Amino acid sequence: MQRLLPLLAAPLLLAQAPPPSPAEPPVYNAADKIIADAPAAHWLAINPDDIMVMDTAAGRMLVQLAPDFAPAHVAAVKKLVREGQFDDGRIVRVQDNYVVQWTARPDPAKPKAPPLPPEYERPSAGLAFTPSPYVDTYAQAGFVAGWQAARDPATGTTWLAHCYGTVGVGRDNPPDTGDGAELYAVIGHGPRHLDRNIANIGRVLAGIEAHAALPRGAGAMGFYDEGRGLKIARVRLASQIPGFAKWQMMDTASPSFAAVVQARANRTGFFPRPAGAADLCTLRVPVREVK
Amino acid sequence: MQRLLPLLAAPLLLAQAPPPSPAEPPVYNAADKIIADAPAAHWLAINPDDIMVMDTAAGRMLVQLAPDFAPAHVAAVKKLVREGQFDDGRIVRVQDNYVVQWTARPDPAKPKAPPLPPEYERPSAGLAFTPSPYVDTYAQAGFVAGWQAARDPATGTTWLAHCYGTVGVGRDNPPDTGDGAELYAVIGHGPRHLDRNIANIGRVLAGIEAHAALPRGAGAMGFYDEGRGLKIARVRLASQIPGFAKWQMMDTASPSFAAVVQARANRTGFFPRPAGAADLCTLRVPVREVK
Fold it and tell me: Model confidence over B26-74: pLDDT tens digits?
């Protein structure tokens, strides 16, 4: 698998039309060729201790965690994974154009974990931020070492942006009430209003398709009826699974990524009028399994 | 049904936490109250001749057509509907974070319809455009009589924006090859790079949830294997169905809609740090069935 998702530029062909000949140049997705040709130095290894491997009734989903952005939340989630608390957990909510949400197995015998600090943004100091060339509705958009991010010079803070596939920690109404036992993945238009309001702990690397296609919950906000959630069989870190595949993300400070950004903003072939820009959530960072 | 989709501001509650008491103020969605309280004069009737009623194996989906933006395409689609050409059609493609796509029943006996003109944008003259207060990555964002739209002062043109739920006409690679027999609905992050490149003919009013939850196609670009598409039983215009419900959209030039925009940009309750802005695709226009 070269990427988490097909590029958004896929053309809308008539079903009856013949497919483009393999001999034709890849006019739809110049980004595909840039990604395929990117030298090894333009890719960053993903630490297998930062990959959560979820086996659910819908299939396998890999989630990359971001300890540089929400260290206490990521540590809490990893602890729950190592304790097996997500085994026999449940997917409890699927809300259309918003989120799929899952929860660890309730354990009444276990003392409730202390609430986590509100790691919704972090100091910009110490981060190499590559700005997006394009204006953003919400903040200064850009990239940090393989992640879609945004920053605010007034507060001197940076955060991971909420886009399709972003994974965060659910919480109750007061800001410091998340404990890592309730997670969500975005399956709709990037809900950027959640930025700086909730702990974004990572993103789906692979396997979101089957989870985004789950039936929407009939309850308020897409919750499934109590007790009817979809089963999660097992969650492990990739580092706990001998021989698990290595994964990489493109270095967003590399010339290859800059070229991908340009290609996505200036699509050719199918597009008589290239947009000349691309919003942050459209500028997905390429990831790949290393064979 | 008050709206097509739940507002995006739904809080991420812990599943074990009690739901907010009904006595609490609706702190999450001030927009809900604005919509519920909007006077009749702030709503526009939707012409039942502009509502396509699709009954598919996944359920019923209503699509509002936009003849002011793509008149030849909308006329061609209505003609196909009236001829029954979409009955026994097929959903042929479901691509994650992109589109669900369907096609009329192939009719080899029928002469091929002439290609439609590239109605990808239209003159701004004659349109009352309400600008969004917030900056847009792609163009000048705003609203025209109940639609999310964008415009370009340099070309003097306006177009409907591609957002979640947008419906357009598939075409082959040359720009004027769509004939209205192949339609798609967006089920992912708003693919605004399609703006001005394809005929956007409307949006889903209701029933997108079950269609967005269809299994993703295993073929290239999410196409289902040949012959395996999901059946469309029947497509009619609401005007052809006696007693069909009336629908309305909020007038985007009304004070109520301006208040909805403000509420969505400045969410309270769950949100310790309101975004202070909202991108065009997040600023969905309220629609409702009139009881």
Answer: 445 799 999 999 999 999 999 999 999 999 999 999 999 999 999 999 9
Tokens 């669900």 identify what position? B100
Beta strands A230-237; A51-56: pairing state? antiparallel
User: Residue B164's domain spans which residues?
Assistant: 49-105+117-243
Domain assignment of residue A53, yes or no: yes
Q: Decide if B264 is inside a domain.
A: no
Chain B contact present for A274, CB below 8 A: yes
pTM of the model: 0.91
Q: Is residue B33 included in any domain, yes or no?
A: no
- How far lies B86's CA from each of A210, A288, B148, B181, B184, in Å? 28, 40, 27, 8, 13
CB contact (8 A) between residue A137 and residue B134:
yes
* A272 to chain B, closest Cα gap in Å: 6
Q: What's the distance, CA B53 to chain centroid?
A: 14
CB contact under 8 A, A271 and B193: yes
Q: Does B208 touch chain A (CB under 8 A)?
A: yes
pLDDT score of B9 more than 50: no
- pLDDT digits 0-9 by tens, B233-277: 999 999 999 999 999 999 999 999 999 999 999 998 889 999 999
CA B150 to CA B152: how far, in whole Å?
7
Contacts of B191 in chain A (CB under 8 A): 8, 282
Q: How many CB pairs below 8 Å do chains A and B form together?
A: 219
Q: What amino acid is encoded at B18 in this protein?
A: P
Do the domain assignments include residue B74? yes
Q: What is the pLDDT of residue B28?
A: 53
First to last CA, chain B: 9
Grouping H, G, I as helix, E, B as strand and the rest as coil, residue B62 is strand
Total structural domains within chain B: 1
Contacts A209 to B, Cβ<8 Å: 96, 216
Contact A13 B264 (CB under 8 A): no
Mean pLDDT of A259-280: 95
- Nearest alpha-carbon partner for B144 in B157, B125, B128, B161: B128
Residues of B in contact with A214 (CB under 8 A): 213
CATH number at residue B73: 2.40.100.10
> Does the CB of A59 have a partner CB in chain B at under 8 Å?
no
The minimum CA-CA distance between A75 and chain B, rounded to whole Å, is 19
Say if residue A217 is exposed, middle or buried (CB neighbours under 10 Å; 0-12, 13-18, 19+). buried
> What is the DSSP-derived secondary structure letter of residue B205?
E
Give the minimum alpha-carbon distance from B270 to chain A in angstroms, rounded to a whole number: 5
* Helix axes of B30-37 and B255-265: crossing angle, nearest 10 degrees: 170
Alpha-carbon dihedral angle through residues A37, A43, A49, A54, given to the nearest 10 degrees: -40
Asked if the C-beta of B162 comes within 8 angstroms of chain A's C-beta atoms, the answer is no
Give the integer Cα–Cα distance in Å for B251 and B43: 5
Instruction: Please answer yes or no on whether B17 and A172 come within 8 Å at the CB atom.
Output: yes
